[in-house]
Fold these 3 entries.
Entry 1:
Amino acid sequence: MRLFAFARLRELLGERRDVAVADGATVGDLWEALVREEPRLTEFARGTRFARNDRLCSAEVPVRDGDEIALLPPFGGG
């Protein structure tokens, strides 16, 4: 699976592109694994949104080999 992170999340995770997770894992499982590797992500847990294959999704959505997962940090605008 390919991982895309934006803004501060990308700064924390670096140029990571490919991620492996166990069969049956969800987007939330992926997020938890990333937080274990980079605990500073915890401060973004409440506001981060996820997309799977270019569609917004919840943390409960299963991930599959070949998926593209985007981590979208909180943002503001006007």
Entry 2:
Amino acid sequence: MSIQILIDMNLSPDWVAELAKQGLTSVHWSTVGDPRATDREIMDWARSHGYTVFTHDLDFGTMLALTHSSGPSVIQVRGQDVLPDSMAPTVVAAVKQHQSDLDSGALVVVDRSKSRVRILPI
């Protein structure tokens, strides 16, 4: 099963094309939901539609920890420059490296130098 990625509003819609170049299926939240939706609404949509949330927002990881939820999986990109031109190779490598964890429920935190995985529930 190939991972499906839901890109949060705080990341550029340009991520969709960049991830597609690497064979990854993704949608930007602005094309499937209300741009003013709460993080909870985004998480609920991702869970019910089988998507992994891709975000720059720390709140998603916090929400997973506080609720002890087993999903949806979250990929959290960290750093100053989170545009695809800068971070795509690192993010794609992390997604491919941790795909089985993401498929079963994980929080993957990616920064320029490394990625870390927390298996859900936290």
Entry 3:
Amino acid sequence: MTKSEDSPFAKYDRLRKKIDKIGKSMEKVHGQHLTCKKGCDLCCMSISVFPIEFYAIKAELDLSNLSELPLPGNDIDCRYLVDHNCAIYPSRPVICRTHGLPLLYMSFDADDYELSCCELNFTDFDFDDFNEENTFPMDRINSQLYAINKEFVATYEGGKYYETDRISLAELV
């Protein structure tokens, strides 16, 4: 996505670039433990996203091509997964950019960190070897995404959305 600095999506674009940069560094560190690759779609399911993500993705896609995609046979599978490939891959949302990597979250009681990663990855890895330097900082990323979305919805279409609203990604078309 190449957007000008005055675009309503400029901050979101910078965040996605930051996420992709961190993701590439995590892939270098953990490549031998990652089974994620083109054609792997265990994590591809119908999701909802913040309005900032929805409208940024919508602005950069050719929706006429997407409307011709076959519909999934259920409400669980992602609308844009076709023959085990993502039809919106370059524009995919944050959750799709980070899934599979070792994601670090603060626990609910805020006294420790919790780790999340795809069940197919890190099958022969000692989880005690994870630390803040070799995991993806999801709390910081999610906080930044929330703040960017909050600013976006405050000005988009006269406050049509609240900062906590989500939109089904399937509604792009």
